[in-house]
Amino acid sequence: MSKKYWLFKSEPGDFSWDDLKKRKNKTTYWDGVRNYQARNFLRDEIKRGDGVLFYHSNADPLAVMGLCEVVKEGYPDHTQFDSDNKHFDPKSDEENQTWFMVDIKLKKELKNPVALIAMKSNPKLKDLKLIQRGNRLSVLPVTKKEWDEILKMGGL
Q: What is the pTM of this model?
């Protein structure tokens, strides 16, 4: 199977690039996704070795901060059952789990974060899902060409 590429959004107030840099082995689980389409990506399509662009949403600037790699494929998100967690889902069933997550590891920080405004103004990224009208998913597929262009814009 060929490597795929993804963009994962995170609000820095919840979990930032700097938080990931401080984690043991620079690795974390990607929990709290509560959209069925994004869940399907996590559960069914995202595989070990896939590339991930770590994107700060609800931030100034909105930007890709660095790249990561998937180190563990989709497995049940434990926060769906934790009533003290903000991602708790009372409708989740332990026998037929609804929500999934993957583990990612920091690979490289961009020399220059790539701001959303810069991506919008780059004609090579005109089809990037992130900038498509109405696309608000927290997990988005990225083509290899888009991945390469964003890394180039980020100084890698």
A: 0.94
